[in-house]
Amino acid sequence: MIEKEVILSLQEENKLLRQLLTKRDDKILQLETRTLELTEQIHILETKIHSLQIKKDSSNSSKPPSTDISPPKRNQSLREKSGRTSGGQFGHKGKTLQMTAFPDEIIEINPNYCNKCGCNIEGSESHFEAKRQVIDIPFIQYKVTEYRRNSKDCPQCGHKQESEFPKGITNHVQYGPNIESYVAYLSVRQYLPFNRLKECMNHFFKIDMSEGTIDNILIRMSKKAQPIYDRIKESITQSKHGGSDESGVKVNGIKFWIWVWQTMLSTYITYSASRGMKTIDSEFPNGLENMILNTDRWAAQLKTKTAGHQLCFAHILRDANFVDKVDKLDWAKRLKEILKRGLELKKQQSEYSKDNPLVIELEHDLDVLLHENIPKELYKTSHVLQKSLLNIVIVYSLFYIIKILRLTIMLRSVL
Asked: What global pTM score does this model have?
């Protein structure tokens, strides 16, 4: 009887111990789970801290070099080091100043006395030894031309016939076409603000020109250039390949945008208060239907009606540089490698067929990379860049599918 009670007591004690062990195991499991959660949170926080330490500049984003941290540094090139020394390479022909065969002025330099004995040799015959040339700009002095309008009496009928001033001479005193052209050049091409342009004209030519006069000259010159401006725009419209971008600028203290459309031969620039489709529709109502348009991933640019879109490799490479520094994930490195492979193929051959093995391989590798799983919580910047590129691929795949379907329906209705 006693033995039975002891056994029951031991069994009860064993049961309690098992319950305690189970609770301990559950507690350990909870602690391990919590440890994993905290470890993951620490990793996320460390990544965020690291990303905050990585500042965006011209080498890893679309920011201009002027916004880089002080002291200003040179714009960081996306090109890899070639291993060659800087400067001119072996075999490169240098360029130096060349003498002209027809100088504007020749000055003969003759000795007048002998340095050895002091004899006067001024009247002796001279012999050519060597020559040197100096290229310089003469002192610039503006020239005033006065036009006098005269009259004559006709000997036959007595009519007083007055002459006319030349075309363009409309005021009592005015600036000539060369000065107006120079003002336009300094303002538009050399980007001199009005105050410095006024100072330049005064220092170089002793012409005291007001800022209001400069403004009037630029308005007149812009009207003269309008037909050329329109032809440039038409050239852009007809081009098959081109690029576009927009950049913020202050106009009278208000934020505006400078828009540019460019081909190999033409550059069309305008400014607008809008960075959206309003500007594109205003400048190109029918879009650029002939063009493969190269842009960054700005939504308004991608909505432009074109024959096709090409993403700017330089923008993607800079974004990949930033992602690489922030996340320390090899995904960005592999993206850059694929882009560089594409650039190398383009250098070797201008065009490839869609069924070319090299093209198929490149597209396959890019497709795999864009569909690779990147945990958003751990690698946010890589995830955002991947999603951005993938969305563009999906949108334009659907766009071309819809385009083909519409064409098919249209052909069927005709047939």
From this structure: 0.65
